[in-house]
Amino acid sequence: MTVRVLVVDDHPLYREGLVTAIATMADKEVVGEAGDGREAVAMVTELRPDVVVMDLHMPELNGVEATREITAEHPGTAVLVLTMLENDESVFSAVRAGAKGYLLKGADRAEIARALDAVAHGEVVFSSGIAGRVLSYFASGSSGPEVTPFPELTEREREVLDLVARGLTNAAIARQLVVSDKTVRNHVSNVFAKLHVAGRAEAVARARDAGLGG
């Protein structure tokens, strides 16, 4: 069986190299490529690939959100994450969104080929350094990794994000934290910039994936 692949990455040179590499693999066919998550979702609907190779850090719609939409709407399409991000929050957000595999961009051609075959046949595959963490997570029966979500945020920014995820407006957050509306707006802007999200809805989705806003 030929595995039909859609490649999604916002860096044109890396995407071009990946497309070329996959095209030379036995029984693999690249049916399309996309530069952001929103385009990826549309192309899956149009092309119905067997596997989507998905970067996580992208404009318009990040890889986690795109993975969630694709796996919900097209359960027959497997998502294989290929990213530079190896922190627990990225890994577990992708897994919860429905990704069947998670490789780091240091993976060689043989590892990528094996992973494409695996996820296309319903298996789950992870880079070696990540596999141990994922197995420990499921073995412990925990609902999530015991890590601080979004380590790039300050403690106050995480607090603001948690309140945003609970549905509070900026004005309500300002009242609760006893700060000015302008201070809250600044915190929210910083959160959006650090998480590379386009707006409140995307920030809420990321926060809830990480266990905030409950």
Summarize the structure.
By secondary structure, this protein is of the alpha/beta class.
Q: What does the model show?
A:
The protein is an alpha/beta fold and 214 residues long. 53% of the residues lie in helices and 14% in strands. It contains ten helices and six strands; from the N terminus they run βαβαβαβαβαβααααα. It has a six-stranded parallel beta sheet, with helices on both faces. Helix 4 links the parallel strand 4 and strand 5.
Write the SSE topology:
Layout (H helix, E strand, L loop, with lengths): L2 E6 L3 H12 L4 E7 L2 H11 L3 E4 L8 H11 L4 E6 L4 H10 L3 E4 L4 H12 L4 E2 L1 H13 L14 H11 L4 H8 L3 H15 L4 H10 L5
Parallel strand pairs: 1-2, 1-3, 3-4, 4-5, 5-6
The main sheet comes to:
6 strands, parallel
CATH superfamily of the largest domain: Response regulator
**Which stretches are poorly predicted, pLDDT < 50 over at least 5 residues?**
none
Shape: elongated
Ends: how far apart? 44 Å
In terms of DSSP E residues, the strand content is 5-15%
Kindly state the mean pLDDT as a whole number? 89
**Elements, N to C (H/E):** EHEHEHEHEHEHHHHH
The CATH class assignment of the largest domain is: Alpha Beta
**Given the helix and strand composition, which structural class is it?**
alpha/beta
Radius of gyration: 18 Å
CATH topology of the largest domain: Rossmann fold
